[in-house]
Amino acid sequence: MGPITVFKFSSEDCGTCHRMSHYDEAVSKELGYGFVNVMLQDTDTYRRYRRLLLAQYPNKVGMGWPTYLLVSDPEGEFTIHGELKGGMPKGDFRKRLDSIEIH
To answer: Per residue of the chain (103 residues), what is the pLDDT tens digit?
Structure first.
């Protein structure tokens, strides 16, 4: 399966996204995941990983700010193993991220 990467889809003008940036990458790495921050305003990075987001949210309906996707093989035939949506305290983020079962 290969390593799992956490992709954070967020926006520069999202206050919750900014607050979570104080710990989301560090927690992801502590749990052994890679981390990629995909800001909608960063057109190159967004274009590169847009297909991941659209696979989970074809019309972007139902996604939260931020939306985190746990993905293996993001550059190839990717698999989405789980997601987290919206803001939450650091402890809840760690607990919820750690509880996603990777198959």
So the answer is: 689 999 999 999 999 999 999 999 999 999 999 999 999 999 999 999 999 999 999 988 889 999 999 999 999 999 999 999 999 999 999 999 999 988 7
What gap in Å lies between CA 89 and CA 93, rounded to an integer?
6
Q: Specify the CATH superfamily of domain 4-98.
A: Glutaredoxin (3.40.30.10)
User: Which pTM does this prediction carry?
Assistant: 0.95
Nearest Cα to Cα of residue 70 among 18, 25, 35, 24: 35
Give the domain ranges of the chain.
4-98
